[in-house]
């Protein structure tokens, strides 16, 4: 079964592809118009252009709508609908201005999506009517010199502090779909703006799907392709030399599966080097000059904290950030909503890093301390998997690069950097979990 995901833009767009088999299905996503049950709520292009009084060029238009369509397809179509209840088969039908560039770029975009989500993706394009917009850049000497993703997490806080400590202006790009995420993004941004006045520009986007019957999909493996596209859109109006900075530590970027059941797309690949390389290729093929930078790809989370440019700012803002994979669950345990659980893998990495950097006294609260109260059942699943992975690593004679490659292909010229950050990152976790045993 294939899902034909139809991107429509504007009131006059009524494109409807033919289905190939009787089992195929359609999902219609209508931007800027259309029936209520197909309408997507977002203002990405309009809000960015209004913020800087600029025009976003045709290639970036195409990328943003392609990324939003992919993200919403992933969000709206449950994996339970697939024959094996995981791998879905998507065909994205996109109206584009740059059809010639998408002939190659679309294949690369689909390949990057397939690696990211573990599904089958295809891209089918058609000509988007109307004149292709010509890009203009902001004409203001005080405008930000770069864009940076700001998720509300700890890595993005360190990246923001390091950039702002240079004295330059930064355009921060956030995305949320509801829940508690906006609170952490807003709290972090407000604290940065107070500590670094007149240097911060805020862009907080939402992309909300149509109201559909039935359940959607909560794994959201594709969220990073949308996040990157939003960041590229903002960076593209700041000038040809303005990069997009993605602050993420190297261990989480590699995201090596802890156990055999977490291989492939069962383990998230948000900023994996292979996915980032694919997106860089997409930008090149579409003629978008924005450079995606991952300055911490060879650093552990603890090393990021230790090397921060302004330790006073970090100590003050550390408890405002959220790393937990399910911060809303704390309300069911009698804790304040938005409290870190302490037992999910992101919480374990965070606590190991904070401990390694000697910042425990400044950290956020946790509902569980895994070192004094070992969680059982589902709550202890990530800790058990981590201990198994650490044990296997201790017993293994294989060089670290072979472990680093378990998450996917890596650029050969960076083998040493990724091998070393994997070894140091696992050592950081080992020291926290076993306390130097």
Structure commentary:
With 437 residues, the protein is an alpha/beta fold. It folds into three domains: 3-127, no CATH class; 146-293, Rossmann fold, CATH 3.40.50; 318-434, no CATH class. 39% of the residues lie in helices and 12% in strands. It contains 14 helices and nine strands. The strands form two sheets. The protein has a five-stranded parallel beta sheet with strand order 7-6-5-8-9, with helices on both faces. A four-stranded parallel beta sheet has the order 2-1-3-4. Helix 5 links the parallel strand 6 (170-176) and strand 7 (200-206). The longest helix has 20 residues, at 415-434. It starts with a strand and ends with a helix.
């Amino acid at each position: 079964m294939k899902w034909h995901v139809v991107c429509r833009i504007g009131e006059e767009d009524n494109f409807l592809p033919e289905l190939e088999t009787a089992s195929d299905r359609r999902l219609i996503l209508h931007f800027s118009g259309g029936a209520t049950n197909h309408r997507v709520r977002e203002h990405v292009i309009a809000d960015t252009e209004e913020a800087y009084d600029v025009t976003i060029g045709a290639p970036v238009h195409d990328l943003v709508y392609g990324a939003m369509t992919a993200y919403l397809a992933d969000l709206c179509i449950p994996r339970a609908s697939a024959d094996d209840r995981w791998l879905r088969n998507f065909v994205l039908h996109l109206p584009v201005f740059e059809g010639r560039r998408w002939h190659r770029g679309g294949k690369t975009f689909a390949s990057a999506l397939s690696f990211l989500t573990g599904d089958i993706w295809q891209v089918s394009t058609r000509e988007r009517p109307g004149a292709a917009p010509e890009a203009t850049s902001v004409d203001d000497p005080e405008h930000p010199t770069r864009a940076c993703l700001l998720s509300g997490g700890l890595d993005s806080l360190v990246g923001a502090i390091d950039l702002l400590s240079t004295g330059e202006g930064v355009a921060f790009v956030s995305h949320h779909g509801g829940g508690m995420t906006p609170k952490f993004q807003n709290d972090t941004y407000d604290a940065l703006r107070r500590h670094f006045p007149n240097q911060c520009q805020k862009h907080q986007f939402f992309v909300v799907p149509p109201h559909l019957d039935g359940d959607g999909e909560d794994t959201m493996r594709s969220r990073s392709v949308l996040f990157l596209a939003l960041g590229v859109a903002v960076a593209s109006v700041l000038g040809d030399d303005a990069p997009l900075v993605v602050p993420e530590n190297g261990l989480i970027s590699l995201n090596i599966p802890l156990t055999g059941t977490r291989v492939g797309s069962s383990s998230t690949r948000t900023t994996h080097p292979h996915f980032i390389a694919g997106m860089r290729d997409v930008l090149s093929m579409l003629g978008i000059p924005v450079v995606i930078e991952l300055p911490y790809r060879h650093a552990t989370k603890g090393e990021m904290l230790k090397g921060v440019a302004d330790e006073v700012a970090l100590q003050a803002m550390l408890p405002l950030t959220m790393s937990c994979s399910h911060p809303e669950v704390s309300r069911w345990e009698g804790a304040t909503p938005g409290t870190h659980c302490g037992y999910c893998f992101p919480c374990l990495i965070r606590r190991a890093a904070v401990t390694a950097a000697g910042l425990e006294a400044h950290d956020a609260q946790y509902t569980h301390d895994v070192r004094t109260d070992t969680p059982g059942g589902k709550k202890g699943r990530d800790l058990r998997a981590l201990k198994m992975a650490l044990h296997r690593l201790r017993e293994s004679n294989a060089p670290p690069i072979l472990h680093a490659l378990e998450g996917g292909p890596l650029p050969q010229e960076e083998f040493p950097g990724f091998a070393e950050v994997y070894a140091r990152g696992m050592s950081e976790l080992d020291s926290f979990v076993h306390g130097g045993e």
